Amino acid sequence: MLFSKRQAVFALTLWGLLLPFIGQAQALAGRVVDAANATPLIGASILWLGTSQATSTDANGHFTLAPAPNGETAVLVSYIGYKSDTVQVQGRAHLVVQLKPVTSLQEVTITGRQDRYSALTPTNSQVITAQDLTKSACCNLAESFETNASVEVSTSDAVSGAKQIQMLGLDGAYTLMTTDNVPALRGLATPYRLNYLSGTYIDAIDIIKGTGSVLNGYESISGQVNVRLKDPEKSDRLYVNLYGNSLAKWDANVNTSFTLTPKLSTVLMLHTDQLSNRVDGNNDGFLDLPLGKHYNVFNKWKYNTGKQWVAEIGIQALRETRLSGQVGYRPGMPQREGSLYGIESETDRFSAFSKTSYTFKNRPYQSIGLILSGARHDFDSHYGPRTYDGYQNSGLANLIFQSAFGNTAHTYKTGLSYQYEDFQEDLAGQRLSRKERVPGAFFEYIYQNSKNLTLVGGVRADHHNLYGWVYTPRFNMKYDFNPNSILRLAAGKGFRVANPIAENVASLISNRAFYFQNNLQPEKAWNLGGSFTQYFEVGERKGAFITDYYYTTFQNQIVPDMYSSPYQVAFTNLNGESFSKSFQAELQYEISSMLDVKAAYKYFDVRTTYNGQLLQRPFIPNHRAFLNLGFATPFDKWRADLTTQWFGNRLVPVMEHAMDQHNAPIKTRTVHPYAVFNGQITRAFKRWEVYVGGENLLDYKQKNPIIAADRPFSQDFDASMVWAPVIGRVIYAGMRFTIK
Amino acid sequence: MKTLKIWMLSLILTGLASVSFAQGGKKVEEVKFKTSAVCGMCKATLEKGLAYEKGVNKATLDVNSKVLTVAFNSDKTSVEKLKKAVNDLGYDADASPATLRAYDRLDACCKKENGSH
């Protein structure tokens, strides 16, 4: 016997171990295609996992890969705009790999334009496209939501012209606002923030309902609105938009972009809006909307090497002045009995951000990104006799590392953040100031099986210098029963430090005393919910049915109690329950090739404990309906849109009767339903577009929106009890000019 | 063989030449361009883009043959102008190459190096 039995077993075992490697030591050939329509992907990269041995597909999507150098058994297949995939070769000599388009929100990496179908994101997301933005009146963010059912825009009072968004029936302060996925316009900028971004700066808006990612901090509670600004690489050389309306308010916008080198491009965006015509349509002696001048500049740069590095920088500066109050008010008039009541404000804001990302060579799934942003917000104002001045300096650094565990079914994002805030507010001689320093760390794990399940689990821990450790867990799940039926679930926690005055500027336009409870605590809430989406086809026309339900419950909330007494607004910690239940059902359907319809019904039950009583949040109707008809002739030469919003019964506090007795139970009354109609018609030419439209076409107005409008210096004066439009019908016209 | 070549060439030339015919008193002509279009999205871009050109009655792209057929009013536009319009949308028209900037801005899927799909 040449070999002992033991040796033979050893040799066989060795052979058994080597077999897979020998089996592997052959060239691998195959094809890479789009999973949806089987079209070949050209230039997709195929790499033996863990090595630098790679190849790419030819014009027909075919590839041949040299044998694995160290007997690797898996390849990584990747293509820009698609999800990378790890494939076990399992001894095969020929592979057909199907790739799916990118699904997750890309927080840092910007790799060309990607298709974003809401059928793919793990969160309940919608996109308002640039095309949708042209359907509503020009030119600020508030108007951008007009043709969308999920976000409400409401006027906060009858004088200042401030508008707020609402999601899930909750105030806009609970919605995280980001521009290019960088938190923006937070804190003291809240009151007029929707004015600070012109519609012409925007490429698209992503609306995420419910809990989102932990990457952007702990603040979002009801959801996130992400504004995607124009991309310097893709912007038109020149874009001009002029707008004027029947109140003599006008807007001018100019965007221009340059490609300086093949790698470096920039877009410069200018906006101004002005109103100097005094309008008092309801004859209450007060201006219906403020006079104002607003200048706004945004400059964005992008450096794209086309390889590993991408960098973006954005700089914005704006100045806005407003004057409102009684029609005869002029700047500088004394604010006391016998004079005219006036509001003046001046805001200066400067902000900048940068995003840099590096994608590892031969590891397209692995990248590292750094986001830096800073802002200085400065305002001086007086609301009648009450002065309100302040500033906010903010700085944020966010470092994100993204990679995969083993294969790309298991990916993760992790990183560190540091947030700095310096606030100072002076309200009629009373000073509030605070400095926040918040270092934090986060980790998010994403599991995607190749078929139908996505799980996202994230957690962040932040150390707040004033409030200690803050833990924020968040969870999202998406399950596709089939490609047309999708279930999403979300649960998560949010935390924020309220800025009671800035978030309740409307109350400044009254003679209520501001009362702050000692020891106001941060707001904390849990948000749980989910949505179900069904895509369908009827008569070869596509449609979608989306329904969702979210429940938000506050562990603490800063409650602005304007209802216990007509003479004060008391800011207190929540003492009792506060919650919001929100249900929405929406149907989108293409009735014919020229007519699209969107219809939605919403139900809100929002309650808060005021002074020991659990009450419906005033001014929020239980039932709402939304209908949008979009008409377009072939090639969009003519477009027309009609949007109706119907608001059901709602409770409003009765202040007039409470004036006699202090601390009486809060009285409310029900105001009747009403509907608002907006419409627009656009005619497009090769470079020109001309549009005409109307807002509040039925001219529905709240009668006497200001309490004691004839006695603005008396204790009873209050302009914050507003639930319906103050401004009647507005007709507008404008034009757009584009050089691509 | 030579005759065949000549025959083929004349056939192609005939195919590409404008064919005049009267329609409702207007002078409507038809021209065909071989383009660099590769996909359904290119079809939408080209047909929409040409619909906005002065004098164009109808434009149809056959994705398989990449041939764009344009019916136009020769009083209002010319074959050269139409070629330029196609180039400015980012596509080659016969021998006339796409405008570089427009081509760069096409979506990845519409670029000609990706081949037909």
From TrEMBL, chain A:
Annotated GO biological process: siderophore transmembrane transport
GO terms under cellular component: cell outer membrane
InterPro entries documented for this protein: Beta-barrel_TonB, Beta-barrel_TonB_sf, CarboxyPept-like_regulatory, Plug_dom, Plug_dom_sf, TonB-dep_rcpt-like
Boundaries of every TonB-dependent receptor-like beta-barrel domain copy: 299-697
GO MF: siderophore uptake transmembrane transporter activity
Keyword terms of this UniProt record: Cell outer membrane, Membrane, Receptor, Signal, TonB box, Transmembrane, Transmembrane beta strand, Transport
Residue ranges annotated for the TonB-dependent receptor plug domain, each copy included: 121-223
Main location: membrane
Chaperone is among the record's keywords: no
Signal peptide: 1-27
Cited PROSITE patterns: TONB_DEPENDENT_REC_3
One Pfam family recorded for the sequence: CarbopepD_reg_2
Assigned protein family: Belongs to the TonB-dependent receptor family.
Protein name: TonB-dependent receptor
The organism's taxonomic lineage, starting at the top: Bacteria, Pseudomonadati, Bacteroidota, Cytophagia, Cytophagales
Automatic annotation (TrEMBL), chain B:
Record flagged with keyword Membrane: no
Pfam family, one: HMA
Keyword Signal listed: yes
Domain HMA: 26-94
Signal peptide: 1-22
Source taxon at top rank: Bacteria
Keywords noted in UniProt: Signal
Family annotation (InterPro entries): HMA_dom, HMA_dom_sf
GO molecular function: metal ion binding
Protein name, entry field: Heavy-metal-associated domain-containing protein
Organism: Rufibacter glacialis
